[in-house]
Specification:
The complex is a heterodimer of chains A (113) and B (268).
Chain A (H helix, E strand, L loop, with lengths): L3 H25 L6 H4 L44 E3 L5 E3 H5 L3 E6 L6
Antiparallel strand pairs in A: 1-2
Chain B lengths: L1 H5 L2 E7 L3 H10 L5 E4 L4 H6 L27 E5 L5 E6 L6 E2 L1 H9 L10 E5 L3 E7 L8 E11 L4 E3 L11 E4 L5 E3 L8 E5 L4 E6 L2 E10 L14 E10 L1 E2 L8 E10 L6
Parallel strand pairs in B: 1-2, 5-8
Antiparallel strand pairs in B: 3-4, 6-7, 7-8, 8-14, 9-13, 9-16, 10-15, 11-14, 12-13, 15-17
The chains are: A alpha+beta (113), B mainly beta (268).
Chain lengths: 113, 268
């Protein structure tokens, strides 16, 4: 039989552990971790084996270290309403322009670098 | 693109580039769809995909003088007729993306066999199957799909798991190849068929079904540091099946198909 005293000791040890470990737990939830925080920031090769003469820490090469990153509305949800100018300078109200058609919307990084 | 517009599907591109930059690109590549300029990244932020790993005050600029802050985590949304998200394609690395064929099939809601795609067939009187790629060639880190399309003759069927002992399920497996990342096969939903003589219901496929296997060319072979990159890779596909009618079964078969997969360069 475990005595009450040693049980108390065990519980307080666990409580202490949780208090000191909480910063570690906090880092796991919420914020996205970048690959440059996981790999050597000066590394030129990422975990896909792609080698480029620019280090992983460079802002242009920053991307998430895991699949757990924000990707916008879920399946079954809608994109927000928005109006933006297209390449010809015309203002396009997205939902009005799409009307009742199916659509493919590509969010890409840049056409100019 | 013609296939998408013929099917009445509208395409939009959104980036933080200015209208003039998008216009130059659009003219150069004769882009017929709208490229929308989200130059302050307001829409990117509202959609919820702003790349928060890049600091706002970063002094590092691109060669064209643009700050990297404001970039999204790049991805594609496929929307249905009501504007609701039907499918999303997001990869954690910008260098990994989904191929045109993958996105096209998702938007159309069916698997199209493109004209110039590599294809290997097998046929006999009871069953015919063809293995084909969603795209004419594989490029580095473009997620594509290998399909094996089965067409079973009328009155006949093939089985799917789970099955009791003694029955052969239809399985497709691809032998590992250096330079290709091959995913787990995805089998389509089955119908339950009642076999009165055996007093059992079993999952079967009849008619035409597609088994999909994710396939991507990786940096093991398509690596710019290697001088001798191959133009194509050989893919070995094993197909195991047993064709039955409701009263008898043919012998179980194992067919081996070999497909040559062309490897393409990235557009620079």
């Amino acid at each position: 039989m475990i005595s009450l005293k040693s049980l108390y000791g065990l519980l307080s040890a666990i409580a202490l552990l949780l208090v000191f470990a909480s910063p570690v737990f906090a880092a796991d939830t919420g914020t996205v971790q970048g690959l440059h925080e996981v790999l050597d920031p000066n590394s030129r090769t990422d975990d896909l084996g792609i080698t480029v003469p620019i280090p992983i820490s460079h802002p242009g090469r920053r991307y998430p270290a895991t699949d757990d990153f924000p990707t916008g509305p879920d399946l079954g949800e809608a994109l927000p309403e928005f109006s933006l100018q297209n390449q010809h300078g015309e203002m396009v109200d997205f939902s009005a322009h799409r009307a009742d058609s199916r659509a493919v919307v590509v969010f890409f990084r840049s056409v100019v670098w | 693109m013609q296939t998408l517009s013929a099917a009445g599907i509208k395409v939009y591109g959104v980036s933080y580039d200015a209208v003039s930059e998008l216009k130059a690109f659009s003219d150069r590549y004769s882009i017929g769809y709208d490229l929308l300029s989200d130059s302050d990244s307001a829409v990117i932020t509202e959609v919820g995909i702003l790349n928060t790993l890049i600091e706002e005050d970063s002094q590092v600029m691109s060669p064209a003088g643009k700050s990297f802050y404001g970039l999204p985590f790049p991805g594609v949304f496929v929307l249905d007729e009501e504007g609701l998200v039907a499918e999303k394609f997001f990869n954690r690395s910008y260098a990994t993306r989904d191929s045109a064929g993958s996105i096209l099939n998702s938007a159309l809601g069916e698997v199209l066999k493109p004209e110039s795609t590599p294809e290997v067939d097998f046929a006999n009187e009871q069953i015919q199957f063809s293995a084909f790629l969603a795209d004419p060639e594989l490029k580095l880190e473009y997620n594509s799909m290998l399909y094996v399309r089965f067409t079973v003759a009328e009155g006949l069927h093939i089985y799917a798991d789970p099955l009791p002992d003694g029955f052969i399920a239809t399985t497709v497996s691809v032998n590992p190849v250096e330079g290709l990342t091959i995913g787990e096969p995805r089998y389509p939903p089955t119908e339950m068929m009642a076999f009165e003589a055996l007093d059992v219901e079993l999952p079967v496929y009849g008619g035409a079904v597609d088994v999909a296997i994710p396939i991507t060319a990786n940096a093991d072979v398509l690596n710019w540091t290697l001088t001798d990159k191959p133009d194509s890779l050989e893919l070995g596909i094993d197909v195991r099946y047993q064709v039955c009618s409701d009263v008898f079964c043919y012998l179980p078969k194992l067919e081996h198909l070999t497909m040559t997969v062309p490897l393409g360069p990235l557009v620079r």
